[in-house]
Amino acid sequence: MTPPVNEAFVIQGGVNYDVLAWPMAFAQERRVLAQVMSYEYLWHAVREVGGAYGTGMLPGSGVELLYTYRDPHIRGSYENFAKGPAELAGREYTGSDLNEFIVGTMARFDPPRKPRQQALETDRRWFCGVTDQLDAADRAAICGVTAQWLKTAAAELARPMAGGVRCAFGSREAIEGAKDLFDVIESLE
């Protein structure tokens, strides 16, 4: 594989889109960490204070990422990304907090569906080999998240994030103001 490259693309318009991605083996309990990072940290730091229209963390198969969209700042968002793991690791989580995080995670994992959506989901499950036993194991992993696991996972997140790859699309001014964060800058104007 080619080495990762931090890239920025100059686009027309006054808003920016930022991503920080890193390799990570997928585990269901990381969905809870993503829920907490998205709504307990990024929502405030990047959206409310930083002014981005949206932000979050997404766990995936082999990769995790943090993102912003319609973001007035590039550098500030990447700085806030870097502060997230320590912020979450330093918090105390109550049983009520964990219930909220787990219920919020399960709402995305297993949402109510209309009949057509349910039929599509049934097809997906069959073609992907998803069984009730696999679902039960996934639910058990999510429901088994503890405050200590959450603090440890948040603290450990700093290491893979530090080696993550940045990609941004933004205005010329915003990209120029954060140009030292990128190896390659291209214009798509």
UniProtKB/TrEMBL annotation:
Name of the molecule in the record: Presequence protease mitochondrial-type C-terminal domain-containing protein
Residue span(s) of domain Presequence protease mitochondrial-type C-terminal: 30-134
Domain of life from the UniProt record: Bacteria
Molecular function per GO: metal ion binding; metalloendopeptidase activity
GO biological process: protein processing
Coiled coil segments of this chain: none
SUPFAM superfamilies per record: LuxS/MPP-like metallohydrolase
Signal sequence extent: none
